[in-house]
Amino acid sequence: MSKSATWHPASWKVCPIQQDPGWPNQAELEEVVGQLKTLPPLVFAGEASRLKNLLAQVADGKAFVLQAGDCSESFAELSADMIRDKLKVILQMAVILTYGAGVPVIKIGRIAGQFAKPRSSATEKVGGVEMPSFRGHMVNDDIPVPSQRIPDPKRMMSAYHHSASTLNLLRAFTKGGFADLSKVHMWNQEFVAASAEGRRYDAIAEEIDRALRFMKACGVDLSEGAPIHQVDLFTSHEALLLDYEEAMTRVDSISGMYFDCSAHMLWIGERTRQPDGAHVEFLAGVQNPIGLKLGPSADPAEVMHMCDLLDPNFEPGRLTLIARMGVNKVTSVLPQLIKAVQESGHRVVWECDPMHGNTFTAEGGRKTRHFDDVLGEIRGFFAVHRQMGTWPGGVHVELTGDDVTECLGGAEDILEEQLPLRYTTTCDPRLNAKQSIDLAFRVAELLRG
Ligand code: PEP
Ligand code: CO
């Protein structure tokens, strides 16, 4: 039977579930969920539908997606500066891609809700002490103290409020003048501006300034209502904690359909993509645009089946397949998946996540990724699409606006022994601002080529 016949926001509860945090106190959980259900939605159904329409253009090969942000947002780091700096990098990357490749760029943040993490192992050993793994600030604390690792459902309420304040500021920044194209120079942070990437960015910013002056001189209307004064930044996160996602699901008064109003786009992670599992069941029934991570073990028949489950109405833009194969597997695994999807008739967006298939542990024990592997996987992804005549629709990256030392290489050539200098992530290693800008230039070249 198709899922739509039996689906309701709680129908996932009878399905097998992976990555369940194991809330210790059911009554407390129910109380939080009950409260969340009464709170206002974080996003509107109409915005999610708008994103779906934009993603349909990507599926058609007419636009490109930049999905970017933290691996795991931190309650402790929520500040205006942090949100602004992350936004700056995303805006800079989008400008580089739009200007460099001449295609519209749809911007989606891993932001304002990316607080829950799947883990490969339920427990970890820190300093010889065994404790539950950190599962994101929406579940427990990252500090390595066993009592702080006990899942606490009240953290879901906190995640809602942290998401709301992040989103509030993002809306102010993107609609209130900060993201105005005439401010393009201002997004270059000081520590970036002095670098080669920063100077290359400044050259584009200068050209944009000149183009704007030229348009103004020609009498093109650039007054308040013109689209150059605002941007759309959509939000997304992994829909991992289904109690939270269910509580944020509302019926849209216009369409009468269910939308998960915790973010515009939600995705299913590599560890929770079982076709009969709870996460697939839940996202199959909400009308948001959704993503599905695909690692190297994904096989064509399974992917086709997932497309039928998650995109039953063959709606362009509904489903984004996010390939995270690793630099050594992308060219061998991806072609057969693309072929299967093409034959199935589903018009999906193909994104490349060049981060999660390229993680390794450096000698000092820190998880890291090398810039060359990240770029290498993107190159492989583009090569496969070019060869098959399909559209490489976007990139999905983990980054921060800070000057961290978490990923190796890049123009500054960060070395293993430098990782401890500024390694602040609570989960996976992120590209720093310079590495992100460098990457955007390379992707723009690939798009042009
Ligand atoms: C992530 O996006 O942070 C993540 C855990 O990815 P994946 O599910 O692809 O491993
Ligand atoms: Co991650």
Helices and strands, with pairings:
Blueprint: H1 3-6, H2 26-38, H3 45-59, E1 64-69, H4 80-101, E2 105-110, E3 123-126, E4 129-132, H5 154-175, H6 190-193, H7 196-217, E5 233-238, H8 242-247, E6 249-251, E7 258-260, E8 265-268, H9 278-285, E9 290-294, H10 300-310, E10 319-323, H11 330-344, E11 349-352, E12 360-361, E13 367-368, H12 371-388, E14 394-398, H13 433-448
Parallel strand pairs: 1-2, 1-14, 2-5, 5-8, 8-9, 9-10, 10-11, 11-14
Antiparallel strand pairs: 3-4, 6-7, 12-13
Bound molecules: phosphoenolpyruvate and cobalt (II) ion.
Phosphoenolpyruvate (PEP) binds at residues 71, 118, 238, 269-271, 293, 324, 356, 428.
